[in-house]
Every structure is written in C-alpha cells, then in structure tokens.
Fold this protein.
Amino acid sequence: MTEQKKERPVWELVGKVNRKITKETLPKTKQKALEEGKKVDDYSYRLVIACENLPQVTKLCVFKDRLISERIWKDIEESNYAGKRYLFYTIRGMYGSYLLINWRELKND
C-alpha cells in the first residue's frame, strides 16, 4: 500500500504588501536538503502584508520552488508590488505560517 500525500487546502487572502524581508537559508537547512537530494535556494522572502479578510495574518513566506509562476519571484525581487492590491493564494506551512503559491492583482477601489 502506497501512502498518498494529502492536498493542502488553498487559502485566499486579500491585501497589500507593505514590505519584504530577505531571509537567508541556514547552512543546517541547506545541508539537510542536500542529504535528502533536494534543491534549496540561498534565500527566500517574507512579505509583510495588510490582510483585509484575515487581519491576523501579517506575513507570507515566499519560496521560489513553491511559486506557480517564475514571474511572481521576479516581481518580488524587483519590488514591483508597491501600491497594488492582491488576491494571495497560499497554503499553510509548518507552525501555522502561510506560504505564497500564486497571486492575482486586483483593481484598487
């Protein structure tokens, strides 16, 4: 009998990005990933957001390998999100964090 991975539910959050924080990958994490044959990036981002529909959510974790589109990573690197309102598609990570997997720009009201 093979064990199947459970699909995580997608959480839809509406809000704006206030700022980004660059997070370096810890050497211990890199080493563990290499031992498991996984690729890991040198850094990731944490987006500080103002969430309209779930105000207690203030941060989104962004990992390049989790994103559906390479364009999102590029937009975050170049800070092309300023003043824009988004529908964030996220999944819950370890310890209750929200991991960004996609976003769609919304019209400002």
Notes: The longest helix spans residues 27-35. The chain has a mean pLDDT of 87. The helical segments are 27-35, 70-77. DSSP finds two helices and five strands in the chain.
